[in-house]
Amino acid sequence: MSGYYYYSGCQDQYDPHYLDACSLCSKSLHNSDIFMYRGNTPFCSKECRQEQMEMDEAREKKWKSGRSLRKSDAQNSTASKTVRTGTIAVA
């Protein structure tokens, strides 16, 4: 058995440890430097880590731009609506 394994709770079943392989390219991390990102995500190189950081940044920008577009659409649609105020009498 290469790498480190931990007991998953099931009899005779051991799963690979999360630090066994790079999170991006799945290269083995056994006996090599480990580059961590966001606390618990291991990478085999600075390049793999940087690529993940760039993907996360692009995803956040896309999410934020989509969110701001929805927000401005909601503001525009409310601005064009007429709201009546007054008293209604019902008999």
Walkthrough of the structure:
- By secondary structure, this protein is of the alpha+beta class.
- 37% of the residues lie in helices and 13% in strands.
- The strands form two sheets. A two-stranded antiparallel ribbon has the order 1-2. A two-stranded antiparallel sheet has the order 3-4.
- The model has no long low-confidence stretch (mean pLDDT 79).
- Belongs to the FLZ family.
Set out the fold topology:
Layout lengths: L4 E3 L6 E3 L18 E3 L3 E3 L2 H34 L12
Antiparallel strand pairs: 1-2, 3-4
Q: In angstroms, what is the radius of gyration? A: 26 Å
Apparent shape: elongated
Number of helices: 1
Counted beta strands: 4
Helix fraction by DSSP (H/I, runs of at least 4):
25-40%
Q: Tell me about the largest β-sheet.
A: 2 strands, antiparallel
Beta-strand content: 5-15%
Straight-line distance between termini: 85 Å
Low-confidence stretches: none
Mean pLDDT: 79
